From TrEMBL:
A Pfam family this chain is assigned to: DUF1156
A Gene Ontology molecular function term of the record: methyltransferase activity
Span of domain DUF1156: 8-70
Keyword Methyltransferase: yes
UniProt record, GO biological process: methylation
Protein name as annotated: Adenine-specific DNA methylase
Sorted UniProt keywords: Methyltransferase, Transferase
Source taxon at top rank: Bacteria
Higher taxonomy: Bacteria, Pseudomonadati, Pseudomonadota, Betaproteobacteria, Burkholderiales
InterPro entries from the UniProt entry: Antiphage_assoc, DUF1156, SAM-dependent_MTases_sf
Amino acid sequence: MPAFIETQFPIARLSAESFKERKSVSGQTLTGLGKWWGRKPLILVRAAILGMLMPASDDAKKDREVFLQILTMDDDGAWARCKPNLQKKLGRTAFDALPYAKRLAHCERPENIVGPEPEAWAEINAHLGTNANNLQELVEQLGQRTFGCKPRVGDSFCGGGSIPFEAARIGCDAYASDLNPVAGLLTWASLNLLGGGRHVQQQVMAVQSAALQEADTQVRAWGIEHNSLGERADAYLYCVEVKPEGCDYYIPLAPSWVVDEYSKIVVKWHREPRSDRLTAEVAELGDAELELYKAKLGATVVKARVVDPFNSTRSWSVEALRGPDGLRRWTNDDVVPRPGDVFQERLYCIRWVDDEGNRRYAAPDANDLAREAQVQQLLRERFAHWQSEGFIPSRAIPEGGDKTEEPIRTRGWTRWHHLFTPRQLLIHGLLMKQLMSTSTCELTAAAMLTVSRFADWNSRLSCWLSSGTQIAGGKNTFLNQALNPLFNYSTRPLSMLSSSKLTFNRGVNLSIRGNVEVADARDIQEKCDLWITDPPYADAVNYHELGDFFLAWYDKKLGRAFPQWIPDSRAELAVRGDGDDFRRSMVGIYKNLTRHMPDNGLQMVMFTHQNPAVWADLGMILWAAGLKATAAWTISTETESAGIKKGNYVQGTVCLVLRKRIGDEPGFLDEVYPLVEDEVKRQIVSMQALDEGSEPNFNDADYQLAAYAAALKVLTQYGNLDGRDVEHEVFAVRDKGKKSDFQVVIERALTIACDALIPRGLDAVWRDLSLVERYYLRSLDIESRGEHRQGMYEELARGFGVTDIRPLLKSDKANGARVHTPSGFAASGLAPLGGAAVASAPHPFASAPLRHLLFAVRETAVAGDNPESGRQYLRDTFGQGYWSQRERFVGLLEWLAALGNAADMEHWKTDSPAARILAGRLRNDHA
């Protein structure tokens, strides 16, 4: 019996819920534990597990209703999640009238409520034959029915811990592993600190508070964050400065000297007699002055060149300043630049706050600089001891990495502590010393995570954002997935670090557990009923390099808390790249997972690519691992809620569902093609039947991915194709540009899907259109439904075999693509046959009948909606053929006329009426 997720999945609602969760940013359940890249939304994980456990019945509609009830994503469940004050304000009728994505603005997330209402449980149990009163009981009963035990869910690339945490929270036995110990620690913390119950959480918070208080007492005693006015610093701003050849003073570097746009605070630089250091002046400007300053004086680094602040015609290449032999490499003892280094460092601004909370910016004075010297001295007195104890980093930055090479090359920083100012090292080390005064495993783990959160928010890679709408502030190191040194950066004093401490989501009050290992996925021995993995793919994120930033702070402590873990990222074993090594690693991993699951178990692989070649590659890897695909769904996770299923998102998450391939049945390519065609059409018809009229469950990306999945479903059921060994095909060497048979079949599936998805209202004429005409109309169709991703138009072109779409596109922006209107084509792109525009190298669209019809629309619009010129153009162009095509032209014109009614088609306001009028004239035309 297939699982629910193998037959359907509520894409639109899951996309909306996933986005709401992502939009919560720091309010997400697991982000309070620490930084990791690509965590999957917990609601997606919950839905995936339940979709794999819940059997599909003969009543697909009822299955869907019950599945949504379990997730509290049905109408009643969403209303129950609506906040009480908003329930009174809105009322149920008005709430239900809102699109689902807009309702969620008023709702709690599913994870923050108890679960379905008692009435819903009665209906759920009646349909599923269970007797559960909560999610955990339901999960156990479904697991017992299928696997004979509480379901065991495993993730061999656990990363930030979303999958094992959510699995454990809803009642599964959870197993997690990752090669990277930083990921292992985050996942362990999700299960044992966040999932350890209120007692553990309160104990951790108490230790953090005590450490911050003790550190504050010491900082006050040192006097390194207060001035003589009784103010305390809440931000320090530093910058790099250089003295280029031919310049007799050091130039401070920043892409902008606007410190706080909202308060109109800037830094101005002045030359002093007999000094090669400029003097900073912090000034408050008026509106007009600020705009003038930004335009003329606001930067000393422009497009990788240093610009003289007093003579903008003089500039120097930043790369050239590093010299032909590169920069001096810092040693372990270095915490600030040496006098002869190319790049120096200076404090240029401090933001002070008084006891009433009033803030002011000021350039550092002599006392401030004395406090900076004191900080350096305090650090040096403790430096060697703190490194030996692991309170501050001592590790070297690995050379040769895509990301780790950047600080070495651009600044000469060779060790991880070089990425921190002396003030940052002193404060972080002091806190680590206080936090590590305890010895329990839970508190040691919490201490490491706490300091790593401080490190993320307080390093030389923490940029300063002078926001125009709120108080300016420093951002975290990993605002992007890089280790790029900055020209100016911010430092948080101790008083501002408490906002970066470890936090726990208020909605988690369960005591859950799971097994976490730091291990190579090829060596796992645990058996799981469900494997859900989000593998690294094609170096999208260099986890092993970026994770070392945090591992440097754990260093000597991690091994003491978890002696069975190797405190090293083991980069040489990391799965990365896209060549044979990557494929061999992936085949080995998924073969191992397949061995360690029951014959009726399932796997889900999550990834984000939509390129047919990537699908073919991954499909062959999973095929060689002994798996067969049964379904694939795309969840939009990076989109504005108002744009759910309207194409405004950059990428979604593809969830590929797989089962173990039992048997070794041979397949033959000549038989595969018709089977793929039937499967693609069946998949599309079933999806269209589930689509909701006013709230579409699927968009074109979903249909295309479903076509790929349909091809994989057919291909991966066979042990071999035309007698060729699967693994041999995975690693076969091919000439550049040559496609594997696997990829050819998958691309054929896209063509079938494109041909089967006929825009509503064009059924009668579709078969008479050429491929390029179909492409243009399908592009208009998806555009009218809000799809503006360039990639979708390119995917469509592949499906219809159109090799050049540029002449058809008005805009090819990444998220702003659209095709030309008839008037937009104008005469240059839509000229009569033989015209100059098509005489030399005509585009296939240039001679298409649809092209002439569009030209007739344009002629009608130009004539002030007088259809005679358009009608006459068609009669002159097609001669006697005009009469045989007239009815088809009328159908196309009426379809084009309706485009002006779509919300996103304002640019058709001229041509849609013209098409409607021309359609009427053609309908009444007589010989």
